[in-house]
Amino acid sequence: MDRRVLIPRPESELLVERGLQHVDGLSPLIHPVRVLDMCTGSGCVGIALAYHRPGIEVTLADKSPEALCVASTNSRSLLGRQLETVETDLFDALPQRRFHLIVANPPYLAHTWFQEAAEQVKQEPQLALLGGGLDGLDLIRRLVQQAPSHLEPDGALMIECDGRQQETVALLLEKLGFTDVVAFDDLAGIGRIVVGRLACTKN
């Protein structure tokens, strides 16, 4: 771990926990289960999922080549193998790719929140922190809009955000057709992730 990536927070363990639950709930006929860790940073979430469920196929994606370098190193060190890494601005480099689960800990801080943050936070890469827009949700809006085209039926999208953004993010998912939208708190009782499922549709 170094200054090229955001230092992983304990709160992100919730993404791993919920991700594993979704994978375990999929049909045993689905093989391999394809998982995308978007805005992967150090790769901690995707690597943890691959560690606990070795049979799944995990792709680590990030806009930062420096972050992907760290993620690749961590993958080889912790798993003894190289997970697929993709340098991309969201799904730009992933055309036609579909996944059974997309997990994301994207940048979501509003600029005003960043200015008020502790000095330790300000030392981390701004690319990994600032989500864009007055509410910090510009990147998450793009993610939610694009994700349905990259999810298999009954696939899930799981997004980490600030507790102050949970309601807005949940509404975004519902507006884009996600069902079973649920917000979860972390161990400290603070709103942390929003989960939605892409329902099967009949042609």
From TrEMBL:
GO terms for molecular function: nucleic acid binding; peptide chain release factor N(5)-glutamine methyltransferase activity. Pfam families: MTS. It catalyses: L-glutaminyl-[peptide chain release factor] + S-adenosyl-L-methionine = N(5)-methyl-L-glutaminyl-[peptide chain release factor] + S-adenosyl-L-homocysteine + H(+). It is an enzyme of class 2 (transferase). Its EC number is 2.1.1.297. It comes from bioreactor metagenome. Keywords: Methyltransferase, S-adenosyl-L-methionine, Transferase. PROSITE patterns: N6_MTASE (PS00092). Residues 33-113 form the Methyltransferase small domain. GO terms for biological process: methylation. InterPro entries: DNA_methylase_N6_adenine_CS, HemK-like, N5-glutamine_MTase, SAM-dependent_MTases_sf, Small_mtfrase_dom. The keyword S-adenosyl-L-methionine applies. CDD domains: AdoMet_MTases. This is peptide chain release factor N(5)-glutamine methyltransferase. The lineage of its organism: unclassified sequences, metagenomes, ecological metagenomes.
